[in-house]
Amino acid sequence: MKPSGARRSPPRSFTVLAKHNITPNMLRVTLGGEGMKTFPADQSGAYVKLHCPNEEGQISVRTYTVRAQRDDAIDVDFVLHDHGGPASRWAANAQPGDTINVGGPGPKKRVAPDADWYLLAGDMTALPAISDNIEALPEHARGYAVIEVLGAEDIQPLSTPAHFDIKWVINPHPGDNSDLLVDTLRTLPWLSGRPTVWSACEFSSMRKLRAYFKNECGLQRNELYVSSYWKLGSSEDGHRLEKRADAEQEG
Ligand SMILES: Cc1cc2nc3c(=O)[nH]c(=O)nc-3n(C[C@H](O)[C@H](O)[C@H](O)COP(=O)(O)OP(=O)(O)OC[C@H]3O[C@@H](n4cnc5c(N)ncnc54)[C@H](O)[C@@H]3O)c2cc1C
What is the CATH topology of the domain spanning 117-250? Predict the structure, then answer.
């Protein structure tokens, strides 16, 4: 099969060790085997490029977060969406012993550690990265995470610093209803001091969050990480192009 859009470093071969549902719409696949022998340590929160077979018998490269890493394995959490797609289909059908090529890892995006308070926001695709970020927060951290999930049963128990709150928002139609995250953020009190913001979600929601943070909150580029992780109606290949065009237009 011919890779399309693969990263330059050669991918490693991983083997599916196990899989189980974390919640109804989030499937955890544990990968290990040969690839772990050379996979760098401490990559929780980093992204990897999964080489998934597509319906044309070729390879589609899809981006996922390393949710957790142990000496012999990494966990990757897949949102089980019903729009089809090589990665979600691969995960749903994966069986222990299956192999997959994995590119990367690429750098993790962590909130700036020296802020006065922290604001994280995202949908289920960002939940692995948000969880990793929360785990890395200092014990004195203040702030919020606003996390959109497909249903109440997709809420995950996350342990947080004492003065850090999580607001769960239910959105069965992310992308179609792209106001929910930003509307929820508008209801939260703005805390004192200098914030650092981390957010990732569907493209339309991302644009609304970005406008809110820049225009309404007056945040500067160095206080803000806003990323689009997927786009309703576009495969990752199409989304990649639209994301690039959007970034050029935004400047
Ligand atoms: C840095 C980064 C890290 C990411 N980490 C994760 C992660 O840990 N877990 C995770 O689940 N996703 C993650 N994503 C998002 C994931 O890469 C996309 O959702 C990807 O498009 C899924 O590929 P696919 O093959 O299933 O669908 P594609 O072939 O890309 O798309 C097929 C169709 O499905 C739709 N679609 C894609 N994703 C979703 C979705 N989540 N909900 C509803 N419809 C969708 C598309 O709009 C399209 O119509 C991450 C993205 C980035 C950029």
Answer: Rossmann fold (3.40.50)
Strands, DSSP E only, in the chain?
3-4, 12-23, 26-32, 47-53, 59-70, 73-79, 99-106, 117-122, 142-149, 163-170, 195-202, 224-230
The domain made up of 12-106 has a fold known as: Elongation Factor Tu (Ef-tu); domain 3 (2.40.30)
| CB 227 within 8 Å of CB 200 | yes
Q: For the segment 40-66, what is each residue's pLDDT rounded down to a tens digit? A: 999 999 999 999 999 999 999 999 999
Q: Which residue carries 């909130």 as its tokens?
A: 111
CB atoms closer than 10 angstroms to residue 65: 28
Domain ranges of the chain: 12-106, 117-250
Look up the pTM and report it: 0.96
Q: Which of 83, 102, 228 is the best mutation target for the ligand 1 pocket, counting ligand atoms within 8 Å of the beta carbon and taking the most?
A: 83
Q: Quick check: CB of 90 below 6 Å from ligand 1?
A: no
Model pLDDT for residues 72-97, shown as the tens digit of each residue: 999 999 999 988 899 999 999 999 99
Q: Are 134 and 145 in contact (CB under 8 A)?
A: yes
